[in-house]
Specification:
Helix content is about 35%, strand content about 20%. A hairpin with a 5-residue loop joins strand 17 and strand 18.
């Protein structure tokens, strides 16, 4: 009798231990790929803030995953959608075609908005010239594979979803609700989204204030730039709704915007049953680390540091939630920045040179060409480092295009801040061994790019039409890249990795084809 009882007890513990062990055996392929897409995140920030970050947020990913300090994007465009397209197609702008947020099409004689359809009405990815990872996943599993993207604005999310943009959700700062490209009377939002919106969470957050989460003396700027920070008052932002057309923009530009996105992501995972079967799903969640409320601040200012520290808490909570729902051993988590932080003038005194305005440069170039060749609108348009000449006028004037391009390039190089000005033909012929030329070449598309391409000198910033100043990265943007979970081994790499290699890497893990324009290769040695 006693022997039988001992046998039963031992059998019970053996069964429990086997079940527990099986729970932590990774699935054959990830049940869920979760991409944490974080605006303006840098490896420099993660290193300097590491002791202030929790063990369950960024540090969990860094210490337990494969960490690449230098993920590389070509720096040809200011538009974040260009980098998003590069990430998800595994190809450069010269292939996927999203060279900027807009360009000029000579044959149609019109400005083209990248994110609008051919009728300039609906938001779509129609101008994307090759497939994304999402498209390839849908090609294999159709609607059995669930895909979604969540964030703040559609101009990043649309490129993630590719041709299947229905499940891109972003915050409408007019209403305070999450909306989608499919939010129409014929194709309404899911019931759980309407229920989430009915809670009016942003109204609750709008009654709060945003101040430092930690003792200010522990913030990087106060510790290492004491003299500079003397007399600087602690920040405190009132998050009340404004009376303009976008009353919720203030609160979404605070840490509470990230909190709302995290809440929505958790609701989506539960309500849509992400990661609950053996068909792989893919979810992208977009977070921010900077705020329009602190425009002009560098990424070590207390306001930006506070955003990062509070985001760390949201990521920690999200990881705990999905571990409980699905198990981290079944989830491939990819974390990266799409844009890298700008350095302000105060950070690099003596190296920041000035501000370049493309519209003014285009006007000067037009005056120059008129002085030589007569009256007319010789310069048709300027967008994001590219000048478009008036081909109809050139043809009527019987002037050779290549000669005018060379004249124009020589003039532009005399303008302060322009390091290189090249005709399109010279960009095509340029050696890929020259990093500055490589950046221009990889962002050049023959049917969409201008007649002249420029690169600004290091330290120069560009003034956009809306007045915002942005740094034109010299040669490349560098962002952190982390793989965590599933079968990923712990490792750290300082050598650069091209971001076109991420899409084929994820595709290999999912055992699906690479996107059809993919120019990268899977990163070796990541899984055990």
């Amino acid at each position: 009798m006693i022997r039988s009882f001992i046998y039963i007890i031992l059998s019970f513990f053996i069964t429990v231990n086997i079940s527990a062990a099986q729970k932590h055996i990774p699935s054959v392929q990830p049940k869920l790929v979760l991409f944490l897409m974080i605006d303006e995140l840098s490896s420099e920030q993660l290193f300097i803030m590491r002791d202030k970050l929790s063990d369950n947020g960024f540090n969990k990913l860094l210490s337990g995953g494969a960490y690449f300090r230098n993920g590389i994007y070509p720096s040809g465009s200011n538009y974040s959608g260009t980098s998003v397209s590069t990430f998800f197609t595994g190809s450069y702008p010269s292939t996927h075609g999203i060279i900027s947020d807009k360009w000029y099409e000579l044959f149609k004689d019109k400005e083209v908005m990248a994110i609008k359809d051919d009728n300039d009405t609906l938001m779509s990815a129609n101008h994307l010239l090759c497939s994304t990872i999402y498209d390839e996943l849908k090609r294999v599993y159709d609607d059995s594979s669930k895909t979604a993207a969540i964030g703040f604005t559609p101009d990043k999310l649309i490129w993630i979803m590719g041709k299947n943009a229905d499940n891109a959700y972003w915050i409408d700062t007019k209403t305070g609700y999450f909306t989608s490209a499919r939010d129409t009377s014929k194709n309404p939002l899911p019931g759980w989204v309407n229920e989430f919106n009915s809670k009016n969470i942003l109204d609750v957050y709008a009654d709060r204030e945003w101040g430092p989460v930690n003792d200010l003396s522990e913030y990087h700027k106060y510790k290492y730039f004491r003299q500079q920070m003397e007399g600087v008052s602690p920040f405190l932002f009132d998050l009340k709704k404004t009376k303009d057309s976008y009353p919720y923009s203030v609160v979404t530009d605070s840490p509470y915007g990230n909190k709302l996105v995290r809440d929505f992501a958790q609701s989506l995972i539960v309500n849509e049953n992400f990661g609950k079967d053996n068909i792989p799903d893919f979810l992208t969640v977009n977070f921010i680390t900077s705020s329009a409320l602190c425009s002009g601040h560098d990424h070590f200012d207390p306001v930006c540091e506070d955003m990062l520290l509070r985001l760390d808490k949201e990521i920690s909570d999200l990881l705990k939630s999905i571990d409980k729902e699905i198990g981290l051993e079944n989830i491939l988590i990819v974390t990266s920045g799409i844009t890298s932080p700008d350095k302000t003038v105060t950070q690099l005194t003596g190296y920041d040179k000035g501000v370049f305005n493309g519209k003014k440069a285009a006007a000067l170039l037009n005056l120059y060409l008129m002085a030589i060749h007569g009256q007319g609108k010789w310069v048709k348009a300027y967008y994001d480092g590219q000048f478009y000449l008036n081909h109809d006028l050139l043809e009527k004037s019987k002037l050779p295009l290549n000669e005018i391009q060379q004249e124009a390039a020589s003039f532009l190089e005399q303008i302060s801040g322009i390091a290189y000005a090249l005709p399109a033909s010279d960009v095509i012929a340029a050696s890929m061994n020259l990093p500055a030329m490589q950046s221009l070449k990889l962002n050049y598309h023959p049917k969409r790019s201008g007649d002249l391409l420029i690169a600004l000198a290091p330290g120069w910033r560009e003034e956009l039409p809306n007045g915002k100043l942005v740094s034109k990265k010299w040669i490349s943007k560098r962002v952190p890249l982390i793989f965590y979970g599933w079968k990923i081994t712990r490792q750290m790499h300082n050598e650069p990795v091209e971001m076109i290699n991420v899409a084929p890497t994820i595709s290999s893990f999912l055992q699906i084809s690479y996107p059809n324009g993919c120019e990268g290769e899977a990163i070796p040695g990541l899984i055990r």
